[in-house]
Design goal:
Blueprint: E1 2-8, H1 12-20, E2 28-32, H2 37-46, E3 50-53, H3 60-71, E4 76-80, E5 84-86, H4 90-100, E6 106-111, E7 120-121, E8 128-131, E9 135-140, E10 142-143, E11 146-150, H5 169-179, E12 184-194, H6 205-228, H7 230-253, H8 257-274
């Protein structure tokens, strides 16, 4: 048995779609970062296998994953994004596969949602495995979108970096695992379908762009600094800083108010990371949709 954990932020419609794709006997934990109590009450009443946990503040993705890890009572925990369809009996296939193979820290299905996107990367050649002559596994160096973790291979140091609010958390997670010689696999015969750009209510699109611009730049510099040193990170980022300042000047000259706001968010995230400020930015802070997206 495993537990499915889904971090969410105003993703109620997508969450219910995911619940219906999972066997009712499998426990599901939703980490709802929006403080949506109406959603919590509705889902827990409707689905007895689902627990909705509402943190005191918006935790972002990585910290929500860690919280779900701690609340889960099974040795296998499957973390996934809410805009990821579980196709062809995905979860039951994962359970069957892991009953016969446990020599992994992370295992992920192969995503088939976009032929131009691959949810894993391989930096060096590893041997492939066939489990029960049915599941074809390939060892990789990085996976994205979903993560089936084997708790027996984890301790506190292996969990997601809670300094990162969004972006680069999966890259950081994978790098730390591989640095400790832990194994990450993709199951080529078990599939998901990434919808993409659908994890939040559309009325939050403006805030989402601000959030993305700020945190992507903060997290990129933080990741480089953490793993390769401050001066290496600064050398890598200086051209980005110059381009952002040039774009900002053009937006000011041509009175492009919205573009200026988005560029300021990018600059804010990057400069905050450069001067070692935490990932504090929350453009959604005063937003409350009251579950009207259902």
């Amino acid at each position: 048995m495993l537990t499915v954990v889904i971090p969410s932020f105003y993703s109620s419609k997508l969450i219910e779609e995911r619940i219906l794709e999972i066997n009712r006997e499998i426990p599901i934990i939703i980490i709802e970062n929006s403080k949506d109590l109406i959603f919590k009450n509705k889902i827990e009443k409707k689905y007895k296998n689902v627990q909705v946990i509402i943190p005191l503040e918006n935790l972002g993705f990585g910290s929500a994953v860690n919280l779900g890890f701690r609340y889960s009572n099974t040795k296998m925990v499957f973390f996934m994004q809410p805009d990821l369809k579980l196709v062809d009996d995905c979860v039951n296939k994962l359970i069957e596969c892991t009953k016969n193979f446990k020599d992994f820290s992370v295992l992920t299905p192969k995503d088939v949602g976009n032929k131009d996107f691959i949810n894993y990367e391989i930096y060096k050649k590893y041997p492939s495995l066939k489990i029960k002559n049915k599941f074809f596994l390939e060892e990789v160096d990085y996976v994205d979108l979903s993560w089936l973790v084997n708790k027996d291979h984890f301790d506190h140091e292996d969990l997601w970096d809670e300094n990162i609010f969004l972006y680069f958390e999966a890259v950081d997670f994978a790098k730390r695992l591989k640095d400790r010689n832990k194994k990450i696999f993709v199951a080529k015969d078990i599939n998901t379908f990434h919808i993409g750009s659908s994890s939040h209510d559309k009325r939050l699109d403006h805030y989402s762009i601000l959030n993305r611009n700020w945190h992507y730049n903060w997290s990129r510099f933080y990741f480089l600094k953490k793993h390769y040193g401050y001066f290496y990170a600064f050398r890598r980022i200086i051209s980005v800083l110059i381009k952002l300042l040039t774009r900002l000047l053009k937006a000011i000259v041509f009175f492009k108010k919205k573009e200026k706001e988005y560029i300021m968010a990018e600059l804010g995230g990057l400069t905050s990371s450069i001067i070692n400020k935490p990932a504090f930015y929350r453009p959604y802070k005063d937003v409350n949709l009251n579950s009207q997206n259902e």
